[in-house]
């Protein structure tokens, strides 16, 4: 299959995996923020006194909200850093 596995040294993700650092990390932070805002107003519990889990629709809403807050400039900068897009002029 001619696949070569390469290990990224610890602490160098931002240099070698720019899409992870430049797109995924901000997106995950926005998702986490959306979840925490949802959790602030949802204090209902199960019969065993555990907090209720978000529904699938709630997760879809988290993703939608997080992606809508992700700016095109953030994505473009990550793609330029990964040398997928040329430098903007």
TrEMBL record:
Pfam families linked to this entry: DDE_1
InterPro entries in UniProt: DDE_SF_endonuclease_dom
Occurrences of domain DDE-1 (ranges): 2-78
GO MF term (any one): nucleic acid binding
Protein name listed in UniProt: DDE-1 domain-containing protein
Taxonomic lineage of the native organism: Eukaryota, Metazoa, Ecdysozoa, Tardigrada, Eutardigrada
